[in-house]
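User: Could you walk me through two proteins back to back? I'd like the raw sequence and the structure tokens for each, with a short line separating them so I can tell where one ends and the next begins.

Assistant: Of course. Protein one, sequence then structure:
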Amino acid sequence: MLRLVCFILVFVCSIPRSGAADIPVDMELVLAIDCSSSVDDEEFALQVSGMANAFRDPMIQDAIQNGVEGAVGISIIQWSSERFQNVAVRWRLLTGPADADNLANEIEAMPRTIGTGATSIANALLFSANSFNGNGMEGYRRVIDMSADGENNQGLDIHIARAQVLARGITINGLAIRNEFPNLDMYFEDRVIGGERAFTEVAKDYEDYRNAIFRKLFRELRDVPVADGSGLDPSWKEALLMQQPEERLQTR
């Protein structure tokens, strides 16, 4: 009898167990940051601070928890050339202000892991798409938030990369930083973005990035129609307008 019991225990323990169910979220979002040679350290720092400030904004924090699930998944990738892509912040589950503040602190402390290279938007898109695999989350939407200050100039053909990503049901949104390319947003519209309700946000330069990343995140998290996004301002801007003129100069 004892042998039979031992045999049953061994058999039961040997049966493969299914993994834990993925956490339902409103959106899985990859933020892909341009770290190519056209981006100097000061411009990289502006991207980092702008993104961190956006996640601290009350409007963004409200948007995170106001979806069906009240949760989103976020990961951050740095990229440049065909073979230069790194996960800078692994997947994080955000369910409210505390999680968003923690992510903002992590972003602020994030080092630059890629310091040079060409601009391979295509390969960055594929790397970002692959990062959704096994992240432990299941979102109603999967979105890649692609920021860049130039056109694809190395690696896979951009049309092929976009088609492969879209075939997986992933939306590609763009943030075109028109620092050196005045018509970069048109390039994004034609060759980069795609998928359900895809859109391009524009930053006229790196100083304007903090406004653009706020608008972009808010529109993605709240799924605001494209026509309604242009007038959005972060909360800090309202506070700045309430200051006296001399205080504004010190804040800039």
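----
Protein two, same layout:
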Amino acid sequence: MTLFDGFMIRAALAGIGVSLAAAPLGCFVVWRRMAFFGDATAHAAILGVALSLAFDAPIFAGVLIAALTMGYAVAVLGARGHAMDTMLGVLSHSAIAFGLVAVSFLSGVRIDLMAYLFGDILAVGHADLLVIWGGALLVLALLWWRWSALLTATLNPDLAYGAGLDPKREQLVLTLALAVVVAVAIKVVGALLIGALLVIPAAAARPLAQTPERMAVIAAGIGAASALGGLQLAFWIDTPTGPTIVCVAAGLFAVATLLDVLRKSARA
């Protein structure tokens, strides 16, 4: 069995699609130090899954609504002066706890909870691919449209105001994009690992890039390499695919960090 088997091709395409969507968004997560925000949004996905099953609605729709609701709640509470780190900790853990409890109340519904927590990329079907790539293209189009405004609002909110931009609006754009990524990625890496797929490739690309645009491109390459490498490695050593993808991404981050240290040492 290799990457050229049918279900492995679908899994590889799913991993690449999620990586392309998560990479540029992950750069903004790193720049804005929003890693906990990404985790909170991802953890809300489990509650979205429970609501979808309870109302017999598409999983994508339920997860998207739950993620958007979490993002909106964070924005509202943050504007009222609540400590961001404490608030995110409360909302993140509460969301996944309520989600798991809600799932336990679903009678007559068979659900593989581990697949939603850690992903089941090998079970991706053609319909899932359409959702993943449709969501990825939507996120890429949204970021392409708002790239300059998002970058300005991220680097200097005061400069953004001076340029006629509203940083709060750009924050909502990021929240929408993040919700879409969470909704399409839950099938691939699961709710507990989505944050890692957002942050690790971007963090690995940071020391290798001289411009924000190049960082986004390199992060996309690292994310895609992590997905493909994780798929093959999981087959070779018979490990869970989602966590293995994240492990490969962590290994690439370690290599990028080492290269950066060696480069700085050579210059010194």
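The mean pLDDT is 85.

Let me know if you want the two compared in more detail.
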